Amino acid sequence: MFVLVNLKAYDCDAVAIAEAAAEVATDADARIAVAPQAVDLAAVAETGVETFAQHVSPNGHGSHTGSTLADAVAQYADGTLLNHSERRLRLADIDASIEAAHDAGLETVVCANNPEQIAAVTALGPDAVAVEPPELIGTGVSVASADPDIVEGAVAAAGDVDPSVDVFCGAGISTGDDVLAARDLDARGVLLASGVAKADDPRAALEALVAGL
Amino acid sequence: MFVLVNLKAYDCDAVAIAEAAAEVATDADARIAVAPQAVDLAAVAETGVETFAQHVSPNGHGSHTGSTLADAVAQYADGTLLNHSERRLRLADIDASIEAAHDAGLETVVCANNPEQIAAVTALGPDAVAVEPPELIGTGVSVASADPDIVEGAVAAAGDVDPSVDVFCGAGISTGDDVLAARDLDARGVLLASGVAKADDPRAALEALVAGL
Amino acid sequence: MFVLVNLKAYDCDAVAIAEAAAEVATDADARIAVAPQAVDLAAVAETGVETFAQHVSPNGHGSHTGSTLADAVAQYADGTLLNHSERRLRLADIDASIEAAHDAGLETVVCANNPEQIAAVTALGPDAVAVEPPELIGTGVSVASADPDIVEGAVAAAGDVDPSVDVFCGAGISTGDDVLAARDLDARGVLLASGVAKADDPRAALEALVAGL
Amino acid sequence: MFVLVNLKAYDCDAVAIAEAAAEVATDADARIAVAPQAVDLAAVAETGVETFAQHVSPNGHGSHTGSTLADAVAQYADGTLLNHSERRLRLADIDASIEAAHDAGLETVVCANNPEQIAAVTALGPDAVAVEPPELIGTGVSVASADPDIVEGAVAAAGDVDPSVDVFCGAGISTGDDVLAARDLDARGVLLASGVAKADDPRAALEALVAGL
């Protein structure tokens, strides 16, 4: 199981969380990555934790102001989220961003709302897809518990299109039980945010997440 | 073969073109539809021609200013284009727009750039998809002649995901030979614009398009 | 005072409201306009009521799919809203849309959130600006009562930049008293929506709005 | 005169250019800043050069994925560009981004196309505005030479609204003569990109720019 922690634009200490994540990953022999804002990618990567961007531009080098290029991200990061529900992309831009990310050597995890959209993004050839029903994001109610049909539907939908694409489970993940429930539904990873980034003790939250693996 | 004429925002006489299209369709026993700006849907539909919108909003009724709702379009139109390269949508909005259109009884034709994106939009359940390589739009060079591999790839990609979804062929279609070439590649329709809308004699252009069918 | 009724994408009978508005305007010798969805502009204008679009594109004629051009709107409408809080535009597009609207002979009413933004849009040369604090939209709490400072600030800000530009007052207007309160703050018009469009009796709502004028 | 070098998404060595800019600024006693991609802000600031972001989000801390917050930028940078023609913002977002930037202690330079838009953005209270006619960007033809009326118009328009806001001159600046021409038109700074970022010898390009000051 892959635990991908999206720090969003939370008022948190990205480097401290990254250090904790790096240590918990080593201690538990688990795969944990941290996705900070673009500005913080260098400092987060410096901790040794697996580092993801929250987004990369579909553009290549050129006259683009205010973009975050895959090539620039790849100086520090290992992968990138794409099409998060808070940063929805046009279909053609998801396609181009996946290609730009892969050309730069970045792993791609593309978010979508439901099994139909999961099938759609799977067809674009990412490394993984993450199903996040928008109505559960930030609720603390895990999609794996509240709506297992969506996770199973996403796993089936992605498998029909391309069985080599992993399915992650997002929205409402906050406990170790949520992670195990996701695994039981054949998800290969979880995507979470506030459960770690806004925790009083992010290290304890991370340890709890991977304890059962 | 379905001939779908997108009038875009061209400076043309939408009603005159619609009247010509209605007559040519009847005379040739061909299926021809006209897609004007939203403002012109009522007047175009009045001619009796099959009428498409160029876009519908993913929203339902509510506090949305400046939107074009599927329900409002369905008063006059039979279907709608979605995700044209000049009106690219976010993936989640393509999904919601298809659903809103179908709920309103509209047929849906969703555009995309390449076979991978065709597979992606096919997974969202539209009635048809149209492959339009952006580099050929408006060139007068038909994709069916210049790049038959893309059309064949699109037909194969859509068929793998859902064989009930038709594939149309856009970009550069302007002659009857282009229509026949598209049909020979197993496209079930063509999407064109300037070839009719900017023709000196739109009726003659339409007649030429369907002459070989 | 100008009463501008935005029908948004509400599930209402646009033509019936337009007919009522035309009659109330005549009976009360008041200026009332109705702004339906683009699809309904022709039918609304047919009633004889003053007709506004909810938005027009910054583009001129050309290869633009899914746009609503000022020229197309001007076949039926007298003016247009721009930059409503539900259809926020980029600054350069507000500028271009105002120009396109004026070239087509449309009157322009540009919305903004606060006095600073009112000053900004006034500098672009519209016919009128409408101040709508987003937190009051749809509340039924009138900005003229709840936050008279914002209206006074908007009138002052617009006047400093260009005294020929009228200031309208939006957000929460639903009664005749709200209209009079707006007038007392030197607003030259009101912009409202649900107070008429979702009223059980839109004609009675319109009559009440203009009764005190 | 302030020389602000936008590195856009060019394939250039941001740190090497920053080092050269820091040294040229010191040697010439000139004010030179460098605006890299967000990912590179930390490394560029490390060189000691004055550092600008190319954009900051209108959002504050919270559930925003793929944003670049003013607070995150302010860890490293001294200021930010906003509303560049390659990253046009909605008016309400320019307003909110200026406020977010100022709250974070960042200086703001807001771009616009023409004198009317310059007046509009000046009303929002930035530290400076930059006039960049889109048709001259990247041409190597300086706006100060090709279209001095636009620069004079921008200086006059900004001065009418708020004389404390500086006017910079962008688009086509590449030589020391361009900088002097801009100064002669009462611009207080220049905004340029390819003239330095794509120069064979960026240091020499920078030295030439400030040589006449």
TrEMBL record, chains A, B, C, D:
CDD domains: TIM. One of its GO terms (biological process) is gluconeogenesis. Substrate binds at residues 6-8, 137, 172, 193-194. Pfam families: TIM. The active site is at 84 (electrophile), 132 (proton acceptor). It comes from Halosegnis longus. The lineage of its organism: Archaea, Methanobacteriati, Methanobacteriota, Stenosarchaea group, Halobacteria. Involved in the gluconeogenesis. Catalyzes stereospecifically the conversion of dihydroxyacetone phosphate (DHAP) to D-glyceraldehyde-3-phosphate (G3P). Homotetramer; dimer of dimers. This is Triosephosphate isomerase. One of its GO terms (cellular component) is cytoplasm. The gene is tpiA. Pathway: Carbohydrate biosynthesis; gluconeogenesis; Carbohydrate degradation; glycolysis; D-glyceraldehyde 3-phosphate from glycerone phosphate: step 1/1. InterPro entries: Aldolase_TIM, TIM_sf, Triosephosphate_isomerase, Triosephosphate_isomerase_arc, Triosephosphate_isomerase_AS. Transmembrane segments: none annotated. Its main location: cytoplasm.
